[in-house]
Fold this protein.
Amino acid sequence: MDYLQSLQCKTPAEGRQLAFTLARKSIAAIQTDPEVRNNLRLEYAKDTAQLIASSQVVAIEFQTIAMANNYWRDEE
Amino acid sequence: MDYLQSLQCKTPAEGRQLAFTLARKSIAAIQTDPEVRNNLRLEYAKDTAQLIASSQVVAIEFQTIAMANNYWRDEE
Amino acid sequence: MDYLQSLQCKTPAEGRQLAFTLARKSIAAIQTDPEVRNNLRLEYAKDTAQLIASSQVVAIEFQTIAMANNYWRDEE
Amino acid sequence: MDYLQSLQCKTPAEGRQLAFTLARKSIAAIQTDPEVRNNLRLEYAKDTAQLIASSQVVAIEFQTIAMANNYWRDEE
Amino acid sequence: MDYLQSLQCKTPAEGRQLAFTLARKSIAAIQTDPEVRNNLRLEYAKDTAQLIASSQVVAIEFQTIAMANNYWRDEE
Amino acid sequence: MDYLQSLQCKTPAEGRQLAFTLARKSIAAIQTDPEVRNNLRLEYAKDTAQLIASSQVVAIEFQTIAMANNYWRDEE
């Protein structure tokens, strides 16, 4: 699990990237066949209901990461 | 990721705008073709279930931003 | 964004009203045509799945507002 | 909004009751016709997907109320 | 509401059990006929979408209970 | 409930593993027949909507675990 050595991120943008990664890796952990995932991705990227559901997962992961970084308040 | 330099926003209204931006950019990060996104947008803006789901994503993003700004209590 | 000058509300009931407003305004921000919104509203108010989904958005918005007001504990 | 004078509840059970009330009143605030609501209720009480969605709304409302009451830790 | 005398649980496992109980009792509070519930249960236990939705309710209830118990940190 | 002796995890990666375990065990607690579960799993691993819903459950469970471990800040 190389992508999750730490929840500490230098910037909000880096935190956002980690949120995307966590969301994507959850899918990969359940559907382990990369070819099947690629086919599924083509489909759901055209389905707004699923795009919205995906963005909700990203929002939840990002909330956790933002908490972990004290919302990057100290960077100000 | 120019839209996410900081979670600090001067006012609740500015925070709300950032919440909308984050939600919209999540969709754009998954469906990267702007023309496809425009077509999808026309559809889902007429579908209440998807409008409600979108507003839920905004609510979660806003919660994170509100926490980050200590709920703008100091502005009072 | 006149409806969101502050997250501070005098009472829980006022906070609840703000939660409803935020949820409704999110929809309006995505579907900007008021006539389309009115038609959609007539439909979804008869669809329990969507009523429940809407009430979930209100619950999340209210949680944020309640946090912002320290749960109105000082009013006791 | 007589049902929401305060988030303070004497016991967890009383807090749970308030969570049910809040969830129910959200529905009533959107679908204001009591007869329509009664008909809808008969339907969705037989639909597990909607029962589960309703119980999720209750869970979120209860989380807010539990936070407001400091989880009733002092009662122990 | 005998099952909710307190949110305090001795162990994380006990807290998890309470989360399952809360989720189940929410359903029972809305669909009050035990026979109807039994029939519904047989159906939804074969429907993965509903199993996943149920597990989300458990996750939210457990988060509240874990907060209430300070995540059982003191047990370590 | 051997998999939940504690919410304390040495690393974020270990915490993520626990989040997957909790999500999976919730399903197993509702659908207790392992053969039925295996069949269901084959189906939903090909259904993106359900993969996304599953990843949301993992995100919520992980948020609780991350809070419990103070986001592994002290490991830095």
Q: What stands out?
A: The two ends of chain D are 31 Å apart (CA to CA). The first helix of chain D runs from residue 12 to 30.
